[in-house]
Each structure stands twice: as structure tokens, then as C-alpha cells.
Amino acid sequence: MAHTKHHPASQRPFTPVGDLDRFTPSPQRPVRLRARSMPVETHFEPHRHAWAQLAYCASGLVQVTVATPDEVTYIVPPSRAVWIAPGALHTIAVIEAAEFRSLYIDASAVPADWRVCRMIMVSPLLRELIHALDAPPGRPLSSHRETMLSALVLEDIMEADTQALGIPLPHPQSGDKRLRALCEAVLRSPAERATLAEWATEVGASERTLARLFRDELGLSYQQWRQQAILSHALPMLARGTPVSQVAEASGYASDSAFSAMFKTAMGQSPSFFHKKNRL
Question: Is residue 3 domain-resident?
């Protein structure tokens, strides 16, 4: 699975232009919903909006990479959504065929402390509100109903629990090259169980220096960052129906139970439950 901003030539490029104007939010209509069925390997070229976006898929799996201010990649299952702040440069790639829902939110409705990107947990209420906003063709919502639903959507988003499932990477230009080389190596081979000391020898830096770089540049310890990288590798496999035992092995775990314990602590659900939920 790719974790960079580059996409194979076989992917179907998509530039978000065309009829985007009719979905543009405004202070009078602060929440606009755009629903699309996206085939696997479709990707959106790098772009930004003056408004915020909540990237959510009712089914399937997408990868969202935000390039500003720091590069972070999120793997987004139906139980999660990514909040993309106004002006943030981002790309989206479809890992599994998705019923993709974009909530465009006018900048005037965005609180000051929501000017950074994050992943949120999608509540049952938010899921139903998004569904309610998705009016069938020929049956548009009344202004009153849209206003009420929009207000509830905004309130639920702002009250949503956040989850640190993004994979931050050192900045390509200003970040430490040794740290970036380590991160890219882990993403290429998530089953590799090398310690930070072993990676230090590999990339030509001391263990102490790497530990400091993880903390200063990425805001995480090596173990915390590696766990998020493993989860990003495991989630698409589970969504595709790969047995938990195979996912555990591919993630570098010697036993299913150890992998399941880590997964449940991070996700609040066992991998088998998550697998069943996302295969519905």
C-alpha cells in the first residue's frame, strides 16, 4: 500500500473541478454534501479549498494525505472521517471501492481551534445526519430541513472524539533525512521488528538522536509512530477480508492475540469485529 504522494500510472486520476461550484458552502448554507461512488484506485490530484472538508466513506476505504503544514497520511474506514482544515493541501486515494461523502463546511462556521487537520470518530448520529443530507435526485431538501440538519452536523463534528491514526512524516525539504529514511523503510516493511537502536545503525544516527527527532519533528515516540504505521497497514487488509492471522503475521506480530490486543487498545474494537463491520 502506498504511503506517499505518488500514485501508480494505473490509477484513475480525478481533478476536483467541473460542477464543484454548486457544492460550494456559504455563510447562508454552511454545510454542503457531495456524494460520489468512487472505484478502487481512483485518486484526487493535490488540491485545496477555501472551506473545510470532512472526508467520509459510508462504505469502502480511502487514504487521505494532507501536505500542509506537515505531511500526514490517514487511512479512513467507515467508522472514521478526516477533518481537512480550510486551505490545507491534500490528496485522496481510494483503496477499496467507496461510497464517498464530502461535507464542505464554510470557513465562517469553523472554530479557531479547528484550523488543523485531524481524524474523528463517526458517531451513529453523525452517520445518520450525513445520510439525511444526501437527498435523492428530484427530492431536494427544504431550506428549513437543511438548516436544521446542518446545525446538528456541525455540533456533532465539534463534539466528536478524535483519534491519532495519522502517519506523520518528516517534511521532504526541511525534515531530517535520516528520520525520513527510517520512516519510509518501516512503511515499506511493516513486519520488520527492528528496534530503534538497530535502525540507528542502519540510517547512520545514534538511538538518542533518532528518539529526539521523532519527538521534535513528529510529536511521537518511535513505538507510538510505528503502531500507527502498523494500523495503517492492517486496516486495508482487514477491509479486504484477509484473515486476522495473516494480518497479524504481515504486521510483524508472532501471535494473533498480541496483535488483537494492540488493535483493540488503539481502535476500541477487536480486529475480527472491525472486519465484520466493514464487510457489511
Answer: no
